Amino acid sequence: MPSKTHRGPGPKKARRNGRREDQNELDLPDFWDGVVYSKPFLLYFQSLFLDAVTRQAPEVLQSLRKDVWERAKRNPDVPNPTLPSRDELLTRWNDEKLSKQFHLPAWVSRYAGVALNLWSADPAWLEAPGWPSVSRGWAWSNQLPEDEIAFCLPRLSWEICGEPWSKFEEKATAEFRLALNSYRKRVTSLALKYGFEKRPRKRSRDGRHSLVAFDYLALWQVCGWTSEKIAAEFDSDSVGVSLRAEGVMEQIHWAADAIELTLRRPSKPGRPRKKEI
User: Fold this and answer.
1) Which alpha helices (H) appear in the chain, and where do they start and end?
2) Rounded distance, CA 107 to CA 146, Å?
3) What confidence category does residue 7 fall into, taking pLDDT thresholds of 50, 70 and 90?
């Protein structure tokens, strides 16, 4: 009998601010190019959601690997009309698993294809944390003039015969911070002048990291958890505020809209759940 698949965020001590730490998670930039992209964070948020799916519902990638990659790998290099190709296996997986079993949208198929290519190119990708991806979903945007965004360090020198190092270090640190703050204000003003827009800042009402919403969404959408169960699992004293089901649903709706995903219908009360074997 196979071991039961682990779900959920794991021990509370492994979480920070209500969510598990992810070494591949990047901070969002402060600006985006509003002229070039109408939804600049779409691909990035989609990749973060798939990382959350990998954490909370590892059976999705396990199914892709078993039902598509491993079966395609066993097929001979010479095409055989009696054996399905990898594309045919992926199409079948999309129809039978992706939508019906895991309740995931069609755009996930693109990321599934990338995962298959990476696994085939280098088996080390099989051990990579998160959903296999060579990028975090960012696209190129117009750059500001390089000569106008160059950062220049303050011109300082240490009077080694008449000044203790501690004094110079204190003075240099203060000058550097002043220059850094001035640089940020200058480039921010320049970015707004060139049509860039500040990213919206989204934070949950209880002070937890906003991107924990993708973990909530993965548990709701793929694992069939209720908002009450998610709240109970993620509730932590680390932020000093109790997590409520209403707050969880607010974050789930935000995350679903951010990645263009249609939420599944809630499970009916009293409906029997399939047992894992």
Assistant:
1) 42-56, 59-64, 70-74, 86-93, 108-121, 146-149, 165-193, 212-221, 227-234, 245-258
2) 36
3) very low
Total count of residues recorded for the chain? 277
Contact assessment for residue 256 and residue 250, using Cβ atoms and an 8 Å cutoff: no
Backbone angles phi, psi at 20, to 5 degrees: -70, 145
Please write the tens of the pLDDT for every residue from 237-269: 444 457 888 889 998 998 999 899 999 987 655
Assess whether pLDDT exceeds 60 at residue 138. no
Rounded to whole angstroms, the maximal C-alpha distance in the chain is 86
Decide: helix, strand or coil at residue 196: strand
Angle at 56 between CA 53 and CA 58, to 5 degrees: 70
Average pLDDT over residues 47-51: 89
